[in-house]
Fold each of these.
Amino acid sequence: MRVLVAPDKFAGTLTAVEAAEAIATGWRRRAPEDVLDLAPLSDGGPGFVDVLHAALGGDLLAVTVPGPHGAPTPATVLLVEGAAYVESAQACGLHLTGRQGAEAAGTAGVGHLLRAAVAAGARRIVVGLGGSGTNDGGAGLLSALGASADVRLDAGPLPLVDVTHVDLAPARALLDGVELVAASDVDATLTGLFGATRTFGPQKGIAEERLPVLDALLEQLAVAVDRRLALEKGAGAAGGLGFALLALGARREPGIGLVADAVGLAARAAAADLVLTGEGAFDFSSRTGKVPAGVAEVAAAALRPCVALAGRVDVGAREMRALGVESAYGMVDVVGEKRSFADPAGSLADLAERVARSWSS
């Protein structure tokens, strides 16, 4: 059989590259004659630059930027034929905040990455959004690009309580002539019940009673900048970084679609007999914008079955098939939760070996 292995990262345990290799290791133990094509993916979150570098080549520009709490943080910009690819999580990711201090965390580092891309001569900048530990509506990014306001924009969301005016002219001038693309993994708006704060705030360590307060702060920023943009899909991506990029004229694209095109996923799926995908938690959030949904869509277009391997599976058969996934298997169900976290690569390999028994002809 020809098997395409196209997983996302398993958040907190395995990168997409490591996940693909673990699946391949287990699969080969059961079906050594099968031909495996490894295509690790990203939806715009952590791993975005590494995946694209492997697929597109290009040069990695090393830079040091302010982290979410101001500490010097190493990051990279991928430069490919006049285009630059930036991974916002490198400058403001959850791994940098430790799921703490989101109310004081900022996104200035992402703005510095854009500055580095412009200085390197990029005429197109693609910003991968996802995995952020911040919730400032992109105010820090705007400040780093030269925007000003009647409050500080680079000190997290709390100062936004008094914001009434934001001058974006300097930031827009800096990006004049640059095509800006926001590659997001979610459709969330900036504010409201399904906005950045209420949807993703808890996983960033924001207490339940603080969610309405921080949502109101982002609403204040939206009124000062452009209330209509706050309602756009993707405005709430990465704690509102999507909103800031839209305000600077960015075009929003689903991150998985952009990466899938870059790695030639459609042609590779058509050449396979079976498509495997996966992520840490295969649940209801996998329905839109995430790697498994994107891979399943590509597999369906190629008339190939798609199977998901995950850390845990929290959807039923009906929901799974609505996503275009034939079957889904969880590491926790096979080896238990303790071993899944203690040895994620080995556990995923064991799961893949078991799945191969059912799916390799």
Amino acid sequence: MTPSASSRRFQLFSYAVLAYTLAVVLWGAFVRATGSGAGCGDHWPQCNGQVIPRAPTVATVIEYTHRVTSGLALVLAVVLCVWGLRAHAKGHPVRRVAVLQLVFMLTEAAVGAGLVLFQYVAHNQSIGRAFWMAAHLLNTFLLVGAQALTAWYAGGRARMVLRGQGTTGALVISGVSALTLLGTTGAIAALGDTLFPASSLAEGFQQDVSETAHFLLRLRGLHPLLAIGVGALVVAVASAVARLRPSAEAKRGAVLLGILYALQLAAGVINLVLLAPVWMQLIHLLLADLVWIFLVRLSAAGLAEDAPRAELRASAADTASASRAG
């Protein structure tokens, strides 16, 4: 049974919250790319021991702005959760994902606080920071994915069903897992670009392949190669899901996902050639988040309980053909 659509106001608000969260994520990347993560020292939630910093440096302004905008994002997530619970009957898919997006917003804040308190910011080159950055990216994916699903289900779509999906379920899991792995390596690669900037493409390549290269540089060289392989897998998965679950939304989602991933690959090449300028890093990250969101939406369309099943129709046709032959 397809659930009723949410009110127009809730739908608009859910998309607005998602858009604002993406903006906050990009500002967080700007904090990292500019080395401003230590702008408030190792104090959290205060900034250099003060609620409002006095005579702040540029780095302090950048970091403090991120904290303020992140605080507002948390408030919006609370409103989205409460509104989602109050405006929808039990069993409506909006309720679960609205709660999940708030949970992931809280864990996002916890990871951000951990980065500051453990001083995994600025020029820290430790392996611990790499793990924290990967965890930060993973949590961000979960957060924006849950918010994207909140907006998706607000449009009156049927909930996802994981059991009994067969090949389609396996394809979705493989695509989501591969893109998650690519995202985490991308976060580490971006950290390497920040900590070990190169003056030329040749110098950057020499940094990556040097026997004495820092582990971040070695991982940075892995990301472009992985991006090509994962791109091929994601596009193949999207095409297969659209064939196996041939709804209009799945077909449209597969096309849009392919276009977005092509743009993402192009942005990655430009980012590499231009030696990862801050503005290009932000575009690259935005496209990565959009690819993730559209993969989540495609997965929701393909695994919806009311999604048409091509393999079932084919099976029925085979059965009928066999009956006539008999």
Amino acid sequence: MSLWTSQDAAAATGGRATRDFAITGISIDTRTIQPGDLFVALQAARDGHDFVAQALEKGAAAALVSRIPEGVAPDAPLLTVPDVLPALEALGRAGRARMQGKVIAITGSVGKTSTKEMARIALAGQGRIHAAEASYNNHWGVPLTLARMPADTDFAIIEIGMNHPGEIEPLARLARPHVAMITTVAAAHLEAFGAIEGIAREKGAIFRGLLQPGTAVLPEDLGVTPLLRDYADEAGAIVIGFGEHGMARPIKAETGDGVTRVCARVLGETVDFTLATAGSHFVMNAVGVLAALSAAGADLAEAARHLSDWHPPLGRGAVEDLGGIRLIDDAYNSNPTSLAAGLATLARLTGGRRVAILGDMLELGPDEIALHRGMADDPSMAAVDLVHTAGPRMRALHEALPETRRGLHAATAAELAERVGELVATGDIVLVKGSKSSKVSTVVDALRRTRQSTLPGERTA
């Protein structure tokens, strides 16, 4: 069954098709393109027009272009438009308009992608589900996700992110969700926003895209919660708070063997579920997800049951046994809030020496050194036996720690990775965390090279 015909795509974008075609998918990357895809020649680090010939050779049904690329015949299957990105947005808008199911949009400073995956997996068996791929949450990721959406989708989960002011509202208006969820508001991208209130205002703008009557699901226990509620009220939304004092809240959570068993109260119903993680922040997001899914018309008990099939994405807090140590790989991103959550997970696990290996937290603005130094006073830090650090910002934390907890410090994560044999010992529980650009994942790679990994769900002989 085709996703778009040439006639439908031309009508949606205002473009001109050189010939009739039908596409079964949409791609922006020739490395992963599949036969039948529409190749979208976006201009980013490289001009996608340079790869159109290659895409067609690999079986693309057509290409979305603003000009006929060099080496491509004029009668090749092309959809020509004045500008490719606005045309992709138009195709996404048309994809959203023809879909009659429910749309759930998710944003937040921490946990967007893992929460989106929770929602996708929890909806198993409740119809045709469509969700954003990976972290496709920006100015091209959201329209791409909408353009890829089959018309008969029952539930769509759209992830929406930002780096600068003014990004979320237009994407939310494009997605037109029935339910919008904010996971949390934290000190991330402070360089662009100046203060946590600026971030809250940007996150709250997601509610401006809600269809009426829409539902706003937001964290109940933050200092900026009143500001988020103002945005939800302005949008005329039904408001559901999740958190310790929310309409959706955990009643009891018990951690053991790397899993957490939860009893929660969600919109007046009591449900039990299990998460394959020791992270309490995942528990809270799961409660919020259940509230969002219920508000979208999903079966709450079924959604809670399927949460046990979810695992944290790679680099985002998964716990694994790794050749004599227990590793918490949380190296994908970091800010003070998510680092505090990672340290809390580390503190909660028992059985050996607790070691944290930390890379710089980036985009924190002029107070970045103080924010790094301040992590020495995090309540969970008292349970950590040894802290290794990498990067110029993390030096502030290294110097603030008592000598008994102060491990190695290196200028870069790569230098720390070269000394991997000095970082941990058999029996340790190890957290590795830092902003992606700090490249602290190189330490994870070094640990995996030197020890045999047993990932969650795998069996050993």
